[in-house]
Amino acid sequence: MARRTPKTRRPGPARAAGLRTPSWVGWLFVAPALAVYAVFVLRPIALTFQYSVYRWDGIGSSTWAGLSNYGKVFTDPDLFATILNAVKLIVFFSLIPVVLGLVIASTIRRIAASRLALAARTVLFLPQVIPLVAAGIAWSWLLSSTGLVNQLLSRIGLGGVTRAWLGDFSTALPAVGVIGAWVLLGLCTILLLSGMSKIDPALYEAARMDGAGPVREFVSITVPSLRQEIGVCVTVTVIAALASFDIVYVATQGGPGNTTMVPGLEIYYLAFSERQVGTASALAVVLMVLVIVVALPIQWLTKDRSS
To answer: What are the domain boundaries of the chain?
Structure first.
């Protein structure tokens, strides 16, 4: 007689419920990351808030200052000017890379099958690979009084406009902005190009059948379809402008005068050169709040509401 294969009994509802993993087990996996985040992010933020209400030189005893450090940030013309300079850099760090990135990404999408598209993507993304310190040094040479930019201007008969672009009071901040735009253009272009790859080609075909040209396709299809990608680009570039440090430090160190001084660099000078840790912490808190106030509305305006 053939042997019967014993049937495997499935656990009943009560037994299955007893095998469920407790909810607290999941927190055990997250605990190491939370601990690192608390030690290296939350704790420094809390200490910054604490230092901002004291007068302290970083070595000796501290004295209570209340909100006077915050008052100094908004009443001292030099400190408040650093915030204004960072806001001005948003035009160069954010507006120019996003607008140009849209145009360049749309152009690359049209020639995606050619070798030129691959070369363009590589060249545009190259600034993201180069260290910002090296980029700042290279641009300092290019924009110096005897640099390549002035040599080219002299060759084409525009020697009268040549100057030390990073050393002139009227052109130093725009010159720093150009460096930032060059660095961030490739990132915006690649992000927007990846977003364009998700757009249904049938939309463009339908638009062409209705007689739409390239400009109409760009305005009516491409830009609205890239709402989230544009939001990411604007958020990243605005934060880069407000929190800029390395490019400014390498290119101008805040000069000439204080024309290119930004909050990040001013915080560094106040804390480590002038030993005004309380004022530096207050400026850091103001900068953090400013970044949050600017970034949150951008995220809200550009989020996908279809879901």
So the answer is: 68-302
